[in-house]
Amino acid sequence: MSFLARLPTATVQFGSVLLVARTSGSLAAAGLTGGALAVGQVACGPLVGRLADRHGQRTVVLAFSLANAVAIAALVAGALMRLPTAALAVLGTAAGATVPQIGPMARARLVALARRARAPESTVSAALSFESTLDEISFVLGPALVGLAAVTAHPGYALEGAALLVALCGSGFGLHRTAVATRPGGAGTSAERRFWSVRTDARRRNGLAATPTGRRAGAVPTSPTRRHGAVPTPPTRRTSTVPTPPPRRTSTAPPPTPIPRSIHALRAALALQGAMFGACQAGITALTQRLGQPDQAGLVYAAMGVMSAVAGLAMAAVPARIALGTRWRTATTAAFGLSLPLLWTGSLPALYVTVTVLGVAYAPHLITVFGLTERVVPPARLAEAMAFATSALVGGQALAVAVTGRLAESYGPAAAFAAGSLAAALACAVALTARPASYTGRAAENDVHARVPGGDETGHARADTRP
After folding, report:
1. CA 95, CA 72: separation in Å to the nearest integer?
2. Where do the H-state alpha helices sit in 412-438?
3. Which of 53, 101, 95 is nearest to 73 (CA)?
4. Fewer CB within 10 Å, N or C, the chain?
5. Sign of CA dihedral 79, 84, 88, 90
């Protein structure tokens, strides 16, 4: 069900361009609408993830699935009515902003279920590989379905089908019983218990631990009634008639968990990967047009996507002893090296071979970075981090398509392929220099030093030992 729910995301991006191009006859209007849709998705994707972390996936996915279905239907209606370009851009932005982020939600849900079952790291890696493979298949199948609908009938049918899918399957994904695996508060319970444990220990050391009746521990209670044979206690004179204000209640909410700064390197790597893919997409389109076979561009994309999906499934067989950092550096190095032959590719058979081989490095890098993201961020903000990572990937791809498309028109396909190789080189540099720290290790360190902020248990200052 999650696969069918995420399929409209890949369908609408390409379908909106074909739809507006056919109804308006303007490639500029089509590009502006598709770009506005991508901007809406990139800008609002992290917000959708944050809402899911705070209010639970069920409510957020239901609301955004229905809103996205309405927005897609409105975009189709606006294109058929031949509304002005500005209005189509607004509708495209709404269609992108309401994407329910099924892929990131599914990743967060699977990871939460695996962690709850105390599954080994190999199981978590296999789950992330499976989810990334579903993404690859959807981004291959979605444009193919749009192209088939455009050839046989009208691209509007594909978009209307996408609206129906996101309404039905997106709602089904939101209502599924596994949605409670990421309900809010589950990850914050341990933090709240640590907060109260530290606070109670401090009060006990100061002699302020309260009994159930609110008196100080160790205090002798005085009986309000006279017992037989007891000496009555003389009444005390009340010095003031002003009532004593009640003690101020301390909030029990745990402090917000910040996302570490090392996550920015992972997001940059995903944006660069998206830029590499977008540049290759522009170069492939330009080269097939130069060779007089523009219809082959979609098949070339499909070949790369299929090989990427196969490599993604194979990632589950990688031994757990190979660390994620090693996998990350290996994948980026392979992507850079395998992208270089595109600079000298000038025939269609050579393009098929080169692009298919390049697909081997695409999914492994995606899976590895998502795995590192899961380990770097706090569990309470996992859906937001996954959605932000997806937005970085989509944003890098959309920006690269817009920029390298002009390069390919002015200087030929090699210019677009060179931009893709440059993005791969930068991603490799990020992987070689970044050292993202695990959130579990930082949490354990914080627990050890929780008694005295900024110091160890003896009160002395400690040095920062994080890598």
Report:
1. 6
2. 413-433
3. 95
4. C
5. negative
Instruction: Count CB atoms within 10 A of the CB of residue 255.
Output: 10
Q: Tell me how far CA of residue 370 lies from CA of 300, 386, 464, in angstroms.
A: 26, 7, 27
Supply the pTM of this predicted model: 0.68
Q: What angle do CA 364, 64, 88 make, to 5 degrees?
A: 90
Distance, in Å, from the CA atom of 366 to the CA atom of 308, rounded to the nearest integer, reads: 10
Nearest residue to 31 via CA among 399, 363, 318: 399
Residue type, 41: Q
Cα–Cα distances (Å) from 5 to 100, 124, 140, 159, 164, in that order, read 9, 22, 15, 14, 10
Q: Which of 427, 446, 429 is nearest to 437 (CA)?
A: 446
Angle at the Cα of 395 from the Cα atoms of 325 and 167, rounded to 5 degrees: 105
Place of tokens 């009160």: 459
Neighbours of 337 (CB within 10 A): 15
Cα 170 from Cα 142, distance rounded (Å): 16
Asked if residues 108 and 182 have their Cβ atoms less than 8 Å apart, the reply is: yes
In this predicted model, what pLDDT tens digit does every residue of 132-142 receive, in sequence order?
Answer: 777 767 776 77
First CA to last CA across the chain, in angstroms? 41
**Which spans in 153-256 are helix H?**
155-175, 188-205
Partners of 455 in beta bridges: 461
* Cα dist from 323 to 252, 278, 327, 336, 445, whole Å: 38, 29, 6, 20, 21
Among 185, 117, 143, 110, smallest CA distance to 12 is for 143
Cα–Cα distance for residue pair 157/465, rounded to 1 Å: 58
**Mean pLDDT calculated for residue range 59-85:** 92
What are the chain's domains? 1-183 (1.20.1250.20), 259-453 (1.20.1250.20)
* DSSP per residue, 77-89: HHHHTT--HHHHH
- Structure-token pair, residue 143: 């444009």
Q: How many residues are present in the chain? A: 467
